Amino acid sequence: MDKVYFIAKKELLSYFKSPVAYITLVLSISVFNVFFFLIIDQNREVSLRDVFHVMEFMFLFLVPIMTMRLFSEEKASGTMEFLMTAPVTNMAIVLGKYLGVLVFFTMLISLTLIYFVIIEFFGSPDRMTIVSGYIGVWLEGAFFIAVGMMTSSWTRNQIVAAMMSYVILFFLYFLINFTKYFSGAAETFIQYMSTLTHLEHFIVGIITVGDLVYYLSGIFICILFTRLSIENRVFQ
Amino acid sequence: MIITKNISKHFGAFQALSGVSFEINKGEIVGFLGKNGAGKTTLMRILTSFLPASTGTVLIDGYDVAKDSIITRQKIGYLPETPPLYLNMTVKDYLKFSAEIKGIPAKNRRRQFENVMAECQLEDVANKTISTLSKGYKQRVGIAQAIIHEPKLLILDEPTSGLDPVQNLQVRNLIKNLKDQRTVIISTHILSEIEHIAQRVLMIKSGEIIIDESLDSLMRSHNINRGDDQSRPMNLEDIFIHHHSDQENDKKSHQNIDNESNNIDAHRVNGHG
User: Fold this and answer.
1) Is residue A169 part of a domain?
2) Could you tell me the pTM of the whole model?
């Protein structure tokens, strides 16, 4: 467990040693601020529902940029050999890297808590709905990060890793638009696979076991596939 | 210290190693020799459990590298051909991270960090970002991460490649100092280095071990078998070329035999046979 922490700490520090962390934070918060103002100005309601939708859409683009270097950079620079010949399990490497990005992502989300303070100051929002919305956005981001980490473990090229993440995430995000072409079990399956369906529940204040299972099993499967791919030298 | 039994490794149809068996005793300094692509790096990667062998077993201190890889990795310090450095980290941060993931207890970390900084003469660059260092310094940082957890076995894959003569001497002296405490396996193309450092030579050709002999007896046997007309005793480079030119000669002789048999066949077809 110590080694998971050391790897997570190293990942987090390496974000802040390059411009990536600062650019991502400044860019994301600036865009969120603009949308927060526009949404509140237009809707005139003390709710963050539409802000959460914007955040979800932005994370589709941002998360692959945050995750693309996780394994592909290690492979390209030869440091993968250093990690994988150190007395540390492959699972600890994967979990350490995952936690490093997750902490960074949590920091990014935390910066938006100011919106809650602002609407709390000017009105009486439904606090539990906002809390469940934040849980949903955080879970969705955690799932996106797991997908991004998995694609990063497939290649030594960071751009290819990001592109593969975009393909998977866009597929999951826009899947809901294709339900009209299906019926019965297929329609239900497509609805369940779409990320939009699940976040929508959290945003309106409903937390169901099905939604939690969706995100947590997605994260678990991606972590497992990442471990398998770093163990399988074909990907190296 | 190391027992390998019948190690083979193939990548698809390509056979990188075939039936490699040897034993290395504690405290030995062994030079791995072979042309590029002979299988040296593959063998080193199998010893460090970075790559699994297709068949065969490797025991390090009695532990199987496939089954008890975490225990064996703890006993090994490894410097790959390209030093595995995080270029955006400082030397200090990188070595501290190395100490952490190599499982050095917190109370010893500082002492071992300071030892390795002194041993590899890195104090002057402790706070410098690795990307700004010269190649010689980068190589020493690579060696520092390999020895920071005081491994019993040190595996160095071409530790002096691409260095200038001064840097080369510095790294060689560093390895010389290390050999008093550990078993060392070193692969290099600079054969004079092996003559200076190693006690034993393992020569690999096309994935097979063709020589496994102490350096002294190797030099003696090759010089005894030579004719008196040679003015200069053979050095390791001559022995290396001698063993690898055999292959070229074999190829040429095979080609000649093939050409001759083709000619004979052609004659037969034309009714001349």
Assistant:
1) yes
2) 0.86
